[in-house]
Amino acid sequence: MFIFIGATTENPSFEMNSALLSRAAVYVLQPLSEEDLETLFKRALEGPLHGLSFTDDARALVVGFADGDARRLLNMLEQIADAARAQQNTEIDEDYVRQTLASKLRRFDKGGDAFYDQISALHKSVRGSAPDAALYWLCRMLDGGADPLYMGRRLVRMAIEDIGLADPNTLVQANAAKEVYDFLGSPEGELALAQVTIYLALAPKSNAAYVAFGAASRAANEGGSLSPPKHILNAPTKLMKQEGYGRGYAYDHSEDDAFSGQNYLPYSTACLRSCKPIPATRHGAVTSGASTPI
Fold first, then answer.
1. Contact at 8 Å (CB) between 69 and 37?
2. Cis peptide preceding 187, ω within 30 of 0
3. CA–CA dist 189, 292 (Å, integer)
4. Shortest CA distance to 202 belongs to which of 130, 137, 123?
5. Residue 16: inside a domain, yes or no?
6. Chain segment 153-176, per-residue pLDDT in tens
7. Closest by CA position to 64, among listed 91, 37, 40
8. In this structure, are 162 and 215 located in the same domain?
9. Among candidate residues 210, 113, 223, 213, the one with its CA nearest the CA of residue 171
10. Strand, coil or helix: what is 117?
């Protein structure tokens, strides 16, 4: 018999062996509250930081930068104390904290739970037409160190998946914002990403193309090597004409409203078993299917 104790910042559901996980008790540790961090701050002032005086704004800034992490709080206080003593400074204000701390170090791992949770929150905020929330999550990710060009690519995806045919111009706008960032860089280019995030959130929504593409892909994958219906095939030879190639084809431009309504899909129903086609009209259609979560 043996007992092991481990700690990880990753999600154990994904990173630990399932057999090991089934034999372990998992405890989820939550970030410390501001009150907890204030308590640690007070203890540090009474001990290792004795002799230093922090303004209320400086104290609030350090607690905010700690972002719920006690180790980060103590590391930052140690960094501030070392700098202050080297400069024989005992009065710590907000400006001094900002100058001393090189980075805010938000909880953001560029590949773990925090990253995927936040990109999911951004995507669903856009899908849910919540511009304030969408802009907030965009800024959270940029603040945490996400690659702005990656964010631009995600916004392009949102324009295709969740807005699509309801406003095709959103794809143009999203791609343009990505290109603007690539051209201008930070910080000017980030404003283009912010603008298009708001634009996408406020745009009408349709996932018709997304749903139809998925269904058509399944039909193509599962339907086998089906041939197009003979009436829409060219018949350059006499034999092909005798076989029925091109027979009964209606030239749409010669029809009323340039719409014949003829069939263009394979005749086999097997290929369409999993396909829910977009209802056709004489001028096309914009429909919305069931939403598929990211």
1. no
2. yes
3. 31
4. 130
5. no
6. 999 999 999 999 999 999 999 999
7. 37
8. no
9. 210
10. helix
Closest by Cα among 194, 198, 195, 210 to 162 = 210
Token pair listed for 84 = 């202050």
Whole-angstrom Cα distance, residue 175 to residue 49? Answer: 51
Contacts of 171 (CB under 8 A, 6+ apart): 156, 159, 160, 163
Q: Structural domain of residue 77, as residue ranges?
A: 34-100
Confidence of residue 23 (pLDDT cuts 50, 70, 90): confident
Q: What CA–CA distance (Å, rounded) separates 47 from 41?
A: 10
Q: Which two tokens stand for residue 252?
A: 């749409």
Domain's final residue, options 175, 202, 229:
202
Indicate the residue type of 94: E
For residues 31 and 9, give the distance between their C-alpha atoms in angstroms, rounded to a whole number: 12
Closest among 148, 248, 222, 243 to 189, alpha carbons compared: 148
Place of tokens 């000017």: 188
Q: How confident is the model at residue 6 (pLDDT cuts 50, 70, 90)?
A: confident
pLDDT digit string (tens) for 71-129? 888 888 988 888 888 888 889 998 888 888 854 455 555 555 677 888 999 999 999 99
Instruction: Give dist(CA 24, CA 60) in Å, integer.
Output: 38
Q: Which has the closest alpha carbon to 227: 211, 245, 212?
A: 245
131-144 helix and 188-202 helix, angle to the nearest 10 degrees: 150
Hey, what are 222's tokens? 């599962």
> Residue 280 — pLDDT band, cuts 50, 70, 90?
very low
Q: Which residue has the tokens 């029809």?
A: 255
- Count the domains in the chain: 3
Are 126 and 92 in the same domain?
Answer: no
- 185 and 254 within one domain: no
Q: Please choose, from the candidates 25, 32, 31, 33, the residue with its C-alpha nearest in 3D space to the C-alpha of residue 6.
A: 25
Give me the CATH number covering residue 49.
1.10.8.60
